[in-house]
Specification:
Elements lengths: L1 E5 L10 H9 L2 E4 L17 E4 L5 H13 L4 E5 L10 H9 L4 E4 L4 H8 L13 E5 L12 H5 L4 E5 L5 H11 L6 E6 L7 E6 L3 H8 L5 E5 L7 E2 L22 E2 L1 H11 L2
Length: 271
């Protein structure tokens, strides 16, 4: 069988338990060498065939996996992050179905999750945003007109932008033209969860110059939205006045956290 495994955002211990188990048992690993942390290959058993797909075409990737399957090997196709996001995985699955080769997909931790963790951030803060838009800037790969950055920016939601760090000036211009204020909070997270992870925070209008100073042009996510700030409402789930199936209503509690409250909390917790 072919196992499409999400390798996680970079740190070797952020692969899932299931993915790690399959990697350890595999007879062949075909990994995205330009993106996947090579330390993950240390988990492969001795004698496992390892193929770097960075220079391969789709036909070559499929041919390699087909050969491994024909020889009775369990094949792990190791993708960065989660295969369902910018993984070019659908075309591989369709080819395998045409060849009647069985496969499964094992989800992984996406880099947008690792980026939020690096920032101690929550994308869906009550009173700020309950929507996360995951998208990219149009480049050599086009984006449908209805999904243009300007169009999506009009929602004012939290945004995580992949594959756009090399076009950050045009990106920020489009975000502002689409509706975000120039002083909207933003961050650039380079290689989230890797040892050389780097975090840049700036108002949206200042992010391009900061990214240029740091020389960050790829392998980074741009995050935009006031979820990066310190003002938000407290969740009703833990409000003592809020009743649900597991707790009766009690006395009322605080309803929001201000920037000052959040900074005090950060100091107390070391965040």
């Amino acid at each position: 069988m072919i196992h499409f495994v999400g390798a996680g955002p970079g740190a070797p211990d952020l692969i899932t338990v299931r993915g790690l188990g399959l990697l350890r048992k595999a007879g062949m690993v075909v990994y995205a060498g330009s993106l996947v942390n090579p330390e993950l290959l240390d988990f492969a058993r001795p004698g496992c065939e390892v193929h770097d797909s960075a220079s391969m075409t789709l036909d070559e990737v499929i041919g390699t996996m087909r050969d491994g399957f024909a020889r009775g090997l369990d094949v792990v196709r190791l993708h960065t992050g989660d295969p369902s996001l910018y993984g070019a995985v659908r075309e591989q699955m369709d080819r395998l179905m045409e060849l009647d080769i069985p496969f499964e997909v094992v989800p992984g931790v996406s880099s947008f999750c690792a980026a939020a963790a690096a920032l101690n951030a929550e994308y869906t803060l009550p009173g700020v945003s309950q929507t996360l838009i995951v998208t990219r800037m149009a480049g050599r790969t086009p984006v449908p007109d209805r999904e243009s950055i300007r169009s999506l920016a009009a929602h004012g939601a939290s945004m995580a932008l992949f594959l756009s760090a090399g076009m950050v000036e045009d990106l920020c211009t489009a975000l502002i033209e689409g509706g975000y204020a120039p002083d909207t909070l933003s961050a650039l997270v380079y290689r989230a969860s890797w040892p050389d992870q780097k975090i840049l925070r700036a108002p949206l209008s200042d992010l391009p110059s900061l990214a240029g100073t740091e020389g960050i042009k790829k392998t980074a996510l741009v995050l935009v939205g006031n979820f990066l700030g310190n003002d938000y409402e407290l969740s009703r789930l833990y409000d003592p006045s809020f009743e649900h199936g597991f707790r009766a209503a009690r006395e009322s509690g605080p309803k929001s956290v201000t920037g000052e409250d959040a900074r005090t909390t950060e100091g107390a917790t070391g965040r």
